[in-house]
């Protein structure tokens, strides 16, 4: 059977100036995941690698490029599931971790828990040897600009985030 992988970069509208980078990022993520499958790797490994690729790409609202919380910090969530066993692992409110998908997988594989959050996730990451990344390295200029706009009186944070959820399989409409 020929391996197949489907990757999407979120849902929502994307502005023209970001379209090319977003499409290239989705293609790059799919190719990384596909490469693992083609070499006989597991679907779980392929998914983790595809997500990691998007977490490292500032075009996406994941890892580097995440939307900032009200304090101006990157605070992320990630979840992963093994389709064969239905085991899953998740992290929430994670800070200073470049690839929270890796941490979510470790939660699934190394604990009896399904979800670790905030301080517990941080302590677990440290125990698992996941390197910390300074929060500033995960903040893009675009994220900071959006955060500042959201702080203005009478701002509509949802309006400013509309283009932040990238294309879904290259689709730019909101169907």
TrEMBL record:
Belongs to the Ntn-hydrolase family. Residues 145-175 are annotated as: Disordered. InterPro entries: Ntn_hydrolases_N, Peptidase_T2. One of its GO terms (cellular component) is cytoplasm. It holds the Pfam family Asparaginase_2. This is Asparaginase and isoaspartyl peptidase 1. GO terms for biological process: L-asparagine catabolic process via L-aspartate. GO terms for molecular function: hydrolase activity.
């Amino acid at each position: 059977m020929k391996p197949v992988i489907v990757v999407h970069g979120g849902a929502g509208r994307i502005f023209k100036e970001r379209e090319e980078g977003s499409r290239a990022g989705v293609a790059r993520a799919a190719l990384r995941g596909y490469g693992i499958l083609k070499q006989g790797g597991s679907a779980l490994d392929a998914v983790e690698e595809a997500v990691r690729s998007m977490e490292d790409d500032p075009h996406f609202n994941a890892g580097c490029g995440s939307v900032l919380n009200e304090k101006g910090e990157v605070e992320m969530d990630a979840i992963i599931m093994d389709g064969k066993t239905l085991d899953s692992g998740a992290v929430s409110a994670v800070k200073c971790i470049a690839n929270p998908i890796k941490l979510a997988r470790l939660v699934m594989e190394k604990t009896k828990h399904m979800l670790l959050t905030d301080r517990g996730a941080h302590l677990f990451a440290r125990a698992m040897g996941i390197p910390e990344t300074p929060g500033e390295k995960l903040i893009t200029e675009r994220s900071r600009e959006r955060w500042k706009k959201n702080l203005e009186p009478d701002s509509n944070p949802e309006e400013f985030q509309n283009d932040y959820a990238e294309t879904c399989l290259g689709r730019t409409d909101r169907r």
